[in-house]
Every structure is written in C-alpha cells, then in structure tokens.
Amino acid sequence: MADDKRTSQGPAETVKPLSPGDEAAPGTPGVGENVCPDCKGTGRLQDRECPTCGGTGVVEEGVGGA
Ligand SMILES: [Zn+2]
Fold first, then answer.
1. Which of 2, 6, 29, 56 is the most buried (most CB within 10 A)?
2. What per-residue confidence (pLDDT) applies to 30?
C-alpha cells in the first residue's frame, strides 16, 4: 500500500515586494498583473533595472475598472 506522503499545498501566499509602479498590493481584489508600460515587460530600461516595476517586468494594476 503506497504511503501518500504528499502534503497538500495550502494557499501559498508569495509576498512580493511592491514596486514603485504597482498600484496596489498583489492579491488585492480588482488588481492584476500587467505588463510594465515603461519597460514593456522586459524589466529593464536601457541597461538598468526598470524602476517602475522593479525589474519584474510587470506591475500590479487595477483591473475591471476604468
Ligand atoms: Zn518596468
């Protein structure tokens, strides 16, 4: 009989540090990740880390609203 040792993974809340371009904290209702408008998702501006998204290439932006 196989012993199932897999532990059920609970909601792993990965806390990501807010970037300057983030409009809200991740996980906030109505907020989703969007491609950073400044670096176009590359996470870099020229040869530097994009300050808007903090080098992640994405920013947290409000969705479902205007
Ligand atoms: Zn960026």
1. 56
2. 81
